Amino acid sequence: MFESAELGHEIDKAAFREREPRLREELLDAQFDLREQAKFPVIILVGGVAGAGASEIINLLHEWLDSRFLSTQTFSAPTDEERDRPYLWRFWRVLPPKGRIGIFADSWYTEPLGQALARKISAADLDQRLDQINRFEAMLVNEEALVLKFWFHLSRQGQRQRLAALEKDPRTAWRVTKDDWRQHKRYDRLQELAGHVLRLTNTPWAPWVVVDGSDDRYRMLQVSSVLLGALLRRLADPQDQNFPVAPPMVPNIDQLDVLTALDLTQKRTREDYEAQLAKWQGRLGELVRQDRFRRRALILAFEGQDAAGKGGAIRRVTAALDPRQYQVVPVAAPTEEERAQPYLWRFWRYIPRKGRLTLFDRTWYGRVLVERVEGLCGEADWLRAYAEINDFEHELHQDGVILVKFWLQISQEEQLRRFQEREQVPFKRFKITAEDWRNREKWDLYHQAVCDLVDRTSTGGAPWTLVEAEDKYFARVKILRTICQRLEDAL
Amino acid sequence: MFESAELGHEIDKAAFREREPRLREELLDAQFDLREQAKFPVIILVGGVAGAGASEIINLLHEWLDSRFLSTQTFSAPTDEERDRPYLWRFWRVLPPKGRIGIFADSWYTEPLGQALARKISAADLDQRLDQINRFEAMLVNEEALVLKFWFHLSRQGQRQRLAALEKDPRTAWRVTKDDWRQHKRYDRLQELAGHVLRLTNTPWAPWVVVDGSDDRYRMLQVSSVLLGALLRRLADPQDQNFPVAPPMVPNIDQLDVLTALDLTQKRTREDYEAQLAKWQGRLGELVRQDRFRRRALILAFEGQDAAGKGGAIRRVTAALDPRQYQVVPVAAPTEEERAQPYLWRFWRYIPRKGRLTLFDRTWYGRVLVERVEGLCGEADWLRAYAEINDFEHELHQDGVILVKFWLQISQEEQLRRFQEREQVPFKRFKITAEDWRNREKWDLYHQAVCDLVDRTSTGGAPWTLVEAEDKYFARVKILRTICQRLEDAL
Fold first, then answer.
1. In angstroms, what CA-CA distances link B457 with A200, A477, B118, B460?
2. CB contact under 8 A, A204 and B244
3. Which residues in chain B have Cβ-Cβ distances shorter than 8 Å to A1?
């Protein structure tokens, strides 16, 4: 895998001087077009063996490019903020927006590779992490990112010579650490691991480029020409980044589905409702104050038709909670900042820390509901969203987040009744808009979208609860009881 | 994931009778066209919970289709033949050829799912196996197969009722085993695992279809319509099955490469050669007779230019071996039977059992050498072959096979000298053909293909050894020594 990068490629000074000015100019031009178009972000990962020149390349790019639109991320031990959330959260926070370049000096590869090198995780664990990384990168690329991954290589002997040379020169001696020499001792094991990692993550959408790190000028020319070539190709051709996606899993040949199967006639009397409400609110308050909850977090996701009673249900839940412990996130059209990022970015922002709750009033399922039905995104986009959402929820689940998802279902007649009531009652009038009436016309399309969503995203770790919401009392009690039961099972 | 398949879908007798004759006729027609075209095989996987009707569906398909061109595979405990080879070997042996349908009542999912259910493997191990399965299925589909995966589902209550009903009827009682009831007790765990497995393996190229198993007629109609639809789509549209592939990893910006870096002037005297040859042949003979070798197997792969000396080198190796222990496989154009199978099938046939050796005179690298250079396959085909070959070799390596790969390199002048010698020496004349002269004209294209092959397929478990073969004595000793060293390291 590294054979060609061990041959001692060299570029002499004169040849380099000749090519440098032109290359720098072209790179700057390409970066300018990238900013102007602002259609995709560039994510550059830089890894490799110690001494192979990764940091020189980062310095070079900052020197050659307009560094106002370029950022470099390094990650040392996770902060407590980061430790309290799933592994990928720290990378989501610093993804470059469209039009910018983000260099990752450490990346999502650093920790799994380091742990495998130190034999802290098994081969199977490593492969599981790599599979997660492949899915994450596929999502980034489908969401328009240009992902470039460079691996800087030196032969064992080349590394020894390089580290020795750096140490000898007083200007660079500080750059060689004990860790570097320790890594040199484990050279063979790192090579074997790196070969495995590169093989499994050299995907069509985010391929690796192996760079011979032995000669400064060769390395600089190679990286900058690869970067320039990739930028120019992408700027010239706003290609469709979408890969094929899997179709729905449960083809239906009759009229029976999960929504029509619901019994919407279920009801509670006011008296019964008030007693049950008090009981489950009390229980919920106890549960989230338990010590065991401090190592977990809770996300409540509310979806449902217009006027199905999401807001009222959310208020009945928060009534049981300490306002310092929770956050309610109403989801509407994305902001400008959010539109410059992958779709799921705006939800990652609100992932609660351990011991906390977030309630989402509408959620990441917008992609496979309103965006699908209204044609706000392409078919391939919402089809692949099922897998991306499952991955997202799996990451939360693996990190100990308890995720409870509700779909509130009412009949078409009940919705009409509630719309009319809203129009007549002055303090409810703000709740009904022309858009609500328009959505109503697409009832059947939404119906199908909800059935698909349940089939494809109700998973062991993150099941859907369908709530018969024709009667608000019945719905609210079911919601509170479900939250308590899920918490009891999980804690 | 299984919500829609728990609703108790039903088709009444009259409706079924009405649709049955037409569906059967169309299925038979489609099967006929499949046979006539003989362009792709159909692989149907059938899995699910006990009692959900998988075996009824298999019977139905055998009844409705022409069963001469249909085979059903079940796998119980592996035979000793199978245990002696990598896991996937037992499936490779029974893949249906193009134009035929193969039903897998057990499949590559059975063992990982069973082991995970019995908690014999960790979650990470399971995910690693699933990743291997995804790669295997992608290869099958890229090699033209139509892969359909059905999961038959029943609710917990539905399963209990069904097993009880089967037991009650004397004609079906035998079909309910203790294992089925044992599985029923672990219903929830199986569901959670199945949900996970289906989520991770529901790929665009080989998606799952979840089938409500509660009603016989509904189940039959659903499976047969999905099968018919998929067959008709594929017959009508010989689509390009190729997915995007990763480009070469080490872009080169100068003239230095792994082949030009070789020192072809290295030589041995005849005397030295004979002493060395005797020494390493003796050592090799000892090594493969060691007890530890009985749990391993050895594959020697020989590639090189025409007249580079592969045959001579192979004879020097086999001279050290017991003919009952090894097999030499000369690789030429594929046979008709081999052309009806995925590319790697004809190499899987010759994987040695534990304690044995196979020597390949030319190998699976033909795809990225002659087929690439001569345009015998598409660019996407040879590009994806690197990853498929790496997966293949990784499976061998994981199973304990020691794989030693040689590229024998000579100069263009030396090749000319040997060609001319072959034409002049009567007993060597059969070795030189018009094709050899033609290949020689494509020297530079082969050169590039070899450099790419080394970069992309020299892995930790299966490294390439480049052999300077200008001097035959030097080459043969290097080959024998390398084999001995690799064996010593591995044993």
1. 12, 60, 36, 9
2. yes
3. 249, 455-456, 458-459
Calpha distance A404→A422 (Å, rounded): 29
Residues 6+ positions from B461 with CB-CB distance below 8 Å: B393, B394, B397, B398, B403
Rounded distance between C-alpha atoms, residue B388 and residue B88, angstroms? 14
3-state secondary structure of B354: coil
Cβ distance B78 to B93 under 8 Å? no
Q: What is the least distance, in Å, from the CA of B244 to any CA of chain A?
A: 6
Cβ distance B249 to A208 less than 8 Å, yes or no, reads yes
**pTM, full prediction:** 0.80
Instruction: Determine the distance in angstroms separating the CA of B311 from the nearest CA of chain A, rounded to an integer.
Output: 26
pLDDT in tens, B353-386: 999 999 999 999 999 999 999 999 888 889 889 9
Determine whether the interchain pair B9/A254 forms a contact, defined as Cβ–Cβ distance below 8 Å: yes
Strand order in the sheet with B42-48: B70-73, B101-104, B42-48, B146-153, B208-212
* Backbone φ, ψ for residue B37 (5° rounding): -65, -40
Q: Judge: domain B270-490, CATH 3.50.50.60.
A: no
Query: ipTM for the complex?
Result: 0.71
pLDDT band at A427 (very low <50, low <70, confident <90, very high): low
Beta-carbon neighbour count of residue A444 at 10 Å? 10
Segment A153-199, tens digit of pLDDT: 999 999 999 899 888 988 888 888 888 888 889 898 999 899 899 98
- Nearest-Cα distance to chain A for B257, in Å, is 6
As a whole-number percent, the residues of chain B with pLDDT over 70 amount to 96
Contact yes or no for A253 and B454 at CB 8 A: no
CATH 3.40.50.300 residue ranges in chain B? 3-236, 270-490
Q: Is the dihedral of CA A124, A130, A136, A138 positive or negative?
A: negative
Between CA B462 and CA A269 the distance in angstroms is: 72
Q: How far is B459 from chain A (nearest CA, A)?
A: 6
| CATH (residue range B3-236) | 3.40.50.300
> Quick one: tokens of B320?
């050290």
User: CB–CB of A204 and B5 under 8 A?
Assistant: no
